[in-house]
From TrEMBL:
It comes from the Eukaryota. It comes from Sinocyclocheilus rhinocerous. Residues 5-147 form the RUN domain. The lineage of its organism: Eukaryota, Metazoa, Chordata, Craniata, Vertebrata. It holds the Pfam family RUN. This is PDZ domain-containing protein. Residues 265-282 have a biased composition (Polar residues). Residues 163-218 form the PDZ domain. Residues 255-289 are annotated as: Disordered. SUPFAM superfamilies: PDZ domain-like (SSF50156), RUN domain-like (SSF140741).
Length: 289
């Protein structure tokens, strides 16, 4: 019993198992020409809801489709699973799939195998739900295309009175911080490190951003309150977040002085102190999860 958040080390494993069983039961026939993942089954389910009983599913599908941080069907399927787990309705959706033959009959498996896979999914969902409150971050979704293991995501909010002073690099559609300029807001306030990702600014997603896009957004918001969503290159345990390894290597090739290792204790103390009391140059600046 208790509350499960994204920092729970077992959450990703449970979600991987859920996905594996769903994919096994709902995968496309071997000779199919069109790629079809379990996400497409959730989408198609709505087309056969003639009685309007799946309004919550419809809202979740719309929210998933509208999320600009998701580039693939795999990412959308994972986002949808997280949404429905958090809302405690995924079990009902899978039950509805069991009784909607026109959605699952295109699978290359027998009806019995499909039903067994979906029943296993329901059992895992009920196990996850028993006495547990799932508090998952909907905003932290930019890496669902690649991994169930999510990065540390923080929000920095402030009204800066000087230039932020971040040197940025665009790699694979993501905005990385390469360096901090001397005496800049970023260096003084220590809210970001080289290797971190600027994921969103004031609700504007920078996933799949073009070169210079972050600078354009910041220029338009000059002098206004900022809410910056940061993806940290360090995981919960202080080690490198694995999906970022190749990108950090590229950054290090460009700037060899960068160090992506465990944070020294003295630096941890300084960072903790900085979070407790922001500089005078920031008005009501704060971190939030």
């Amino acid at each position: 019993e208790g509350t499960v958040t994204d920092s729970n080390p077992h959450l990703a494993t449970c979600c991987e198992l859920l996905e594996l069983i769903l994919r096994k039961g709902l995968q496309q026939p071997v000779l199919s020409l069109a790629h079809r993942d379990y996400w497409h089954c959730f989408e198609q389910l709505l087309h056969h809801d003639t009685c309007g009983r799946l309004s919550s599913v419809s809202l979740a599908v719309q929210q998933t489709t509208a999320c600009s941080k998701l580039m693939t069907s795999q990412g959308r399927g994972r986002f949808f699973i997280r949404l429905m787990l958090m809302r405690r309705t995924l079990g009902n959706v899978v039950k509805q799939l069991l009784h909607t033959n026109r959605v699952i009959e295109v699978s290359g498996h027998s009806q019995v195998m499909i039903e067994n896979c979906l029943l296993q999914t329901i059992n895992i969902i009920y196990f996850l739900r028993s006495g547990i409150a799932l508090m998952l971050s909907v905003k932290n979704c930019s890496f669902l295309d690649e991994s169930w293991l999510l990065p540390v995501c923080q929000i920095y909010e402030a009204v800066p009175c000087r230039e932020l002073g971040m040197v940025l690099r665009y790699l694979d559609g993501r905005v990385f911080v390469l360096d901090l300029l001397q005496c800049s807001q970023a260096q003084v306030d220590m809210f970001v490190e080289p290797g971190d990702i600027i994921d969103e600014i004031n609700g504007i997603s920078l996933r799949n951003a073009s070169n210079g896009q972050a600078g354009v957004v910041l220029s338009k918001l000059k002098g206004q309150p900022l809410s910056i969503h940061l993806i940290r290159w360090r995981g919960e345990d202080g080690s490198i977040y694995q999906p970022l390894v190749k990108h950090l290597r590229q950054l290090k090739q460009e700037k060899p002085s960068l160090q992506f290792g465990p944070k020294p204790a003295s630096q941890q103390d300084r960072t903790a102190g900085q979070k407790r009391g922001q500089t005078q140059c920031v008005k009501d600046g704060r971190y939030s999860q």
